[in-house]
Design a protein that fits this description.
By secondary structure, the chain is an alpha+beta fold. Helix content is about 35%, strand content about 25%. Strands 1-3-4-6-5 form a 5-stranded mixed β-barrel. Strands 8-9 form a two-stranded antiparallel sheet. It starts with a helix and ends with a helix.
């Protein structure tokens, strides 16, 4: 039998007594008050649980209705920017440089061609911008620089303009020079990122850059 049922039974028994009735004792009243408090607490907890469920449902629906933030694509390089980059590549080609795709490795290595000592970096060449060359540059190349280190490209994928040095190093490995103003990084979609004359930046596809150089 529950506490509430016992209270109701006592009240009923009291009502059926004849004669002078004695008021409920202190123990009985205390028990009744405890039962009333428990019922009120249970009702309050149930209300809080219901309100929490409603709030969670509202937040869930709100989250579902929210649109994910969009990452705006970077605008492509302007026609003038592409034309300028193509012109610089053509000028370097006249000096014997070849545009080559690949990855610049971290770290520096010491080189010595028997006349000059300097530093170099490793460049894993993947292929050239223009196909059809009798000797496509590929594999691990040693690129040295008689330039300030601030001009060096950082690690990562780039399009570099390379030219074979006059002498290999002392071990017979070919050395290459690069044109620092044409160390062009590649983005995740293998587009060439150009820095334009006005300081703005924008990507260009290899097909468009190749056509601009040929044009």
């Amino acid at each position: 039998m529950t506490e509430e049922e016992r209270v109701r039974g006592l009240l009923a028994a009291t009502a059926e007594l004849d004669g002078q009735q004695r008021p409920p004792g202190a123990q009985f009243l205390a028990r009744a008050r405890r039962s009333l408090r428990r019922r009120r607490l249970a009702a309050g907890a149930g209300g809080l649980l219901a309100a929490g469920a409603v709030l969670a449902g509202v937040l869930s629906v709100t989250g579902l209705n929210e649109e994910p933030k969009r990452v705006e694509p970077q605008p492509a390089a302007s026609a003038e920017c592409v034309r300028q980059a193509a012109q610089e590549i053509k000028e370097r080609q006249g000096e014997g440089y070849r545009p080559v795709f690949g990855t610049v490795r971290e770290g520096r290595v010491r080189v010595d061609d028997g006349v000059t000592r300097g530093s170099a970096f490793r460049f894993d060449a993947e292929g050239e911008l223009f196909a059809g060359s009798a000797t496509q540059l590929a594999g691990s190349l040693t690129v040295w620089y008689p330039t300030a280190e601030v001009q060096l490209p950082g690690p990562g994928r780039h399009l570099l303009l390379l030219r074979t040095a006059e002498r290999p190093d002392r071990t017979g490995v070919d050395l290459f020079h690069f044109a620092p103003e044409q160390a062009l990084p590649l983005d995740t979609e293998d587009r060439v990122r150009l820095t334009c004359a006005d300081g703005s930046e924008g990507p260009v596809t290899t097909q468009r850059l190749r056509a601009a150089v040929h044009g």
